[in-house]
Every structure is written in C-alpha cells, then in structure tokens.
Task: inverse folding
C-alpha cells in the first residue's frame, strides 16, 4: 500500500468533529436507503474515516428498524442479512484504516517484541470513537425529546455527561497510543478479522448447502 505518511501526529480530536459532521449529514434525510454523500474531507484518511462513520450511521438505524415489535418476519430476515453485510463492510473499513496507520507508524509499530503490546489495533480504537459519536448524538436527542417525561430527559442528560467524559478519555488514549508507538514505548499488531458467519467456506450452515464445498 502506497499511503503517504502524515507529516505530524494526527489530531485525534479532529476526527471527533469529522464524525459529528458525518452524523449530522446522515440525519438531514435520516434514511437507511440514502446514498452516502461525497466526502467533504480532503485527505484519503479523512475520506475513509467519513465512510466508516457513515456505515456506522446506517447500521445503527438498521438495528433500530429490526427491533420493531410489529415487523414482518420476512422484512426482519432481510434486515438481518443487510446488517451482516454492513458488519462485513465495517470490518473491511477498519482494516483499511489500520493499513493507513501502520504505513504511517512504520517500523515503530512492530518494534522490539519486548516493548509492551497494545490490546487492540489503532483502527479498532477509532471504531469505538465513531460509535461513541453516534451514542452521544442520540443520547443528546433523548435528553431534549419533547414527548419524553422529565425523568427520562434528566436520566439521558446524566448519561450524556458520561458519554462526553468517555469520548474525552478515549480520544486522549488514542492520541497517547500514537505518541507512544512513535517513540518506541508501545507497539501494535494487526490481526485480520475472520467473520466466519459471512464466509461460505467457514460457516457450516452455508458450506453444507448443495453445490458448496
């Protein structure tokens, strides 16, 4: 992969602003069937982060739809398949993000094996940051929803404060991770994900079908 390395440490807090922008754009129409708009970002990495967040937005609302009590079973099954495809796309995008990060981090990422190994790759940490942005958006909506009672709104406002603190902490932790990898105090390792349920060669329900091997 020929991704150019950034000239300086990424500003992880800027990615929160990017995610917030993506989520706001999604909710202008608020439909799981709307096409993703052209990314307003200027770099390949930013465009990839935007696409990742867009996939998260769509999947968030697909997960809402599939929980309708009156949903037709056939519709629910189609939504389940769509969620599976979305999960695969999300995983693929996370791995593309890790490719970007590892090219940028270079040899520092896989340095001396005696250096402490981080528990997850950088992109999976950023994945959690994208999901937190969605939680924050929807919790804020619930904290001011006119049709909800005061107790509900107050509970959601308290939860929103926790989400704000969690996002601040996670942002800082990811920023520190990049700094520590570049200075040789921590290393990261990329394990490709294996979504067995989507693979006709690994899911026994699928490879047991006639005509499959």
Result:
């Amino acid at each position: 992969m020929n991704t150019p390395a950034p000239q300086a440490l990424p500003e992880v807090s800027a990615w929160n602003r990017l995610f917030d922008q993506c989520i706001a754009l999604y909710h202008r129409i608020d439909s799981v069937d709307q096409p993703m708009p052209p990314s307003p970002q200027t770099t390949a990495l930013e465009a990839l982060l935007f696409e990742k967040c867009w996939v998260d937005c769509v999947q968030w609302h697909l997960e809402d739809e599939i929980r309708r009590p009156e949903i037709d079973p056939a519709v629910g099954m189609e939504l389940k398949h769509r969620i599976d495809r979305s999960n695969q796309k999300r995983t693929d995008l996370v791995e593309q993000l890790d490719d970007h990060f590892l090219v940028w981090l270079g040899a520092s990422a896989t340095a001396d094996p005696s250096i402490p190994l981080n528990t997850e790759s950088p992109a999976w940490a950023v994945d959690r940051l994208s999901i937190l942005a969605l939680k924050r958006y929807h919790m804020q909506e619930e904290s001011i929803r006119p049709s909800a009672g005061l107790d509900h709104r107050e509970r959601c406002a308290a939860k929103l404060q926790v989400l704000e603190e969690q996002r601040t902490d996670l942002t800082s932790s990811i920023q520190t991770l990049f700094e520590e990898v570049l200075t040789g105090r921590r290393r990261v390792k990329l394990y490709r994900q294996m979504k067995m349920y989507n693979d006709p060669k690994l899911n026994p329900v699928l490879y047991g079908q006639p005509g499959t091997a």
Notes: Residues 73-105 form the longest helix (33 residues). The radius of gyration is 20 Å.
